[in-house]
């Protein structure tokens, strides 16, 4: 395809369309095609020269960036959808969102985005082909083996099997499930808060269709994996204890908070003993051994065996999920920012911080030491792109010893660091990062989740331009999907606080942008 490929938002964007139905508290809107967005030139790291036009003079590399897929076993006993009813209580805020009305369609949206990325031959600014796709964590939702198998089928090619337990859908969106806080597309128009209050549609047979196996072709380009908090902890927050591990593959699915739960300590209770949330009212569901929780090492082994995807024998031998992937001009450094002590936010421990410093040194002919002196090496210069699940602001888990400031200060000492790609916050955001070290800075680019509106990926083009500058071109990608993938996006756009009118799409300068910085060497 050309630079005007289907899916690139330079051609057209998507947003809130006409009202399709009205509920008692809000309206349900369709998705409309809107004009495309041009690239905003951002010069915070080079000063304002008064010139808006930027012409690439030499392409370096084009990267696809996709993050926070949340392949979900929607029938798992170890999902706590009933917590969504506590959305007005700030003490439960870090535990939300536990369930999305469109999550049964996640595999269809992911499959559609993979196909869209496969169809885009090159970046719109440089016409350089996509060299690799960076996947920055939360590929799965609830640290389960069957979720990991489905993710690998979607990315490597194979059969994704959304259904688990007994054949057929058995979960909170079934018409006869207790409660009305979840959308029940087969149910009556007044049978749940989404239809009654928000105008969500009736879609008879949707659950049955969503549970069918999906044959996936997989990405046709190399992709790099990354460990996220949802790969490690229950619902991205709770430590997997032996008791929880047994319950995940079992038959008791909770439907309400346990009696006597202390709301003041509810978050820490879930972090340390999530199985306590399974001690209240429950229903019996079909057990499934494939729902067992995975470990960090099992995640690494699975990606290594399926195609390496950045991980090496060293990762398996040491049981670590951080690594280096080198190309001729660019070194990719993937970090493991997951806090094993639980909680959603991240951290980087001292051994990994030491490892990161050594790997940065290897990509520089000279660098600034901790005391401010200049150190020369025998290494050749390469541009450095950092990949991680959590970004700088989210590396602040209170259960970890190290602060995010140490990571940023380290990166700013190395002038070849030009870009940090991450996810986690399910929103588009681009931030210049600067410090006191010789005026060096780099760009942090955070891409939105595929599971929440605007359900996008991003193309990132590295190129040289005039005036001794380096350019980083960012272009958002909308998937061109099936009817189920399109319904997934429409439903996501209508979720209160997270949809069309939310902060998640970012501002224009967080989406299609050309980011400039001095050429480091």
Give start-end ranges of low-pLDDT stretches: none
Biggest sheet architecture = 7 strands, mixed
Number of helices: 12
Write down how many β-strands occur, each being a DSSP E stretch of 2 or more residues: 21
Radius of gyration: 23 Å
Describe this protein's structure.
With about 525 residues, the protein is of the alpha/beta class. It contains 12 helices and 21 strands. The strands form 6 sheets. The chain has a 7-stranded mixed sheet. Strands 11-12-15-16-18-17 form a 6-stranded mixed sheet, covered by helices on one side. The model has no long low-confidence stretch (mean pLDDT about 95).
Task: Give the topology, please.
Blueprint: E1 12-22, E2 27-35, E3 40-42, E4 56-66, H1 106-119, E5 130-135, H2 145-156, E6 158-160, H3 193-198, H4 206-210, E7 214-216, E8 223-224, H5 229-232, H6 242-248, E9 252-254, H7 266-272, E10 282-284, H8 296-307, H9 313-318, E11 323-326, E12 330-334, H10 350-361, E13 366-368, E14 374-376, E15 383-387, H11 404-412, E16 417-422, E17 429-434, E18 441-446, E19 456-465, E20 469-478, H12 483-493, E21 513-518
Helix pairs in contact: 1-2, 1-12
What is this structure, in a nutshell?
By secondary structure, the protein is an alpha/beta fold.
Features of the shown structure:
about 525 residues, alpha/beta, 7-stranded mixed β-sheet, 12 helices, about 25% strand
